[in-house]
Design brief:
This is Capsid protein. It contains five helices and 16 strands. The chain is α+β, with helices and mostly antiparallel strands.
């Protein structure tokens, strides 16, 4: 429909700059919120050795050694979560707009795959960790005690924790309770992922992607549907979450089937909590 100013038709134009889309905070940062140390090269599945161990009991001086046989277990990481997105763009469409349609399509595909990749990592944490004992509601009055209690559960299992992956609701409670004791993280590599801060010796990360039902494939090849509705936070040691990838692709190719191009992205990844005792999932009873 033409636009008129008084009796005169005026020009109409489309902006060549696009309004950016919104995506969940990219909270998965290697060496900070997960480890990729088991990235070993071409493989569809990686097995991690874990040596069996137990504390040595004291004896009396002047005795022979009692030999113990070496034993281990294998922790499989199956690279079975595949992410794909392909945008079809006719040449006549690209020629009729002022912005670079191909580049925008590729950028969108990358962002969509990254978002799904990140949410699957959160689902893995929530599904493969152990359930924290407490299930009562968390408020500004009891949040500090709750965090300390959950940390205590990990420590009693001989573990330690340095990350608290928070839902937005829980992160808000932390901000309300911690006040000036909550120290914003200045490290650019971490801070660019969204709202991050230090409290009680741990890094608190706001994961707004920890929402709804998230599906991922576990190390056995089973698709798990993880309901995040009642999850408040996941406290863990960052090296307990392993993410390994063996393929990633981002391309714009000319099609032979039609006059135009395809903007395509593919990623293939495996997720695994390699030590459940280092990951505590705090939920409220629903």
């Amino acid at each position: 429909m033409a636009i008129k100013y008084d009796q005169m038709n005026v020009d109409e134009k489309y902006a060549s700059i696009l309004e950016p889309n919104l995506y969940y905070n990219p909270v998965m940062v290697p060496g900070v919120t997960f480890t990729d140390k088991y990235q070993t090269g071409p493989a569809g599945q990686i097995f991690v050795h874990k040596v069996s161990t137990s504390a040595v009991e004291a004896g009396t001086p002047g005795r022979d050694f009692a030999d113990k046989k070496m034993a281990d277990t294998l922790i499989p990481i199956q690279l079975n979560n595949n992410f794909q997105q392909s945008y079809k763009l006719y040449g006549v469409q690209a020629a009729a707009v002022a912005f670079s349609a191909g580049e925008e399509a590729l950028s969108t595909a990358i962002s969509e795959c990254r978002e799904g990749w990140m949410q699957c990592a959160i689902a893995c944490l929530a599904h493969e960790g152990f359930a924290a004992t407490a299930t009562a509601a968390i408020t500004a009055e009891n949040v500090k005690a709750d965090i300390i209690a959950t940390r205590k559960e990990i420590v009693k299992k001989k573990g330690r924790a340095n990350v608290v992956m928070c839902t937005p609701d829980f992160y808000g409670v932390v901000l309300e309770a911690a006040g000036k004791d909550f120290t914003p993280v200045q490290n650019d590599r971490v801070a660019e992922t969204g709202n991050v801060g230090k409290w009680l010796g741990m890094t608190f990360v706001e994961a707004n992607g920890a929402a709804g039902s998230i599906k991922y494939y576990d190390h056995a090849g089973t698709q798990q549907t993880v309901d995040m509705t009642n999850v408040q936070y996941v406290m863990y040691y960052h090296e307990a979450l392993s993410i390994v990838s063996n393929f990633d692709l981002a391309r714009i190719i000319e099609s032979e089937r039609f006059a135009g191009s395809l903007a395509q992205v593919e990623m293939n990844t495996g997720y695994r909590v390699t030590n459940q005792n280092l990951v505590a999932v705090r939920s409220v009873s629903g």
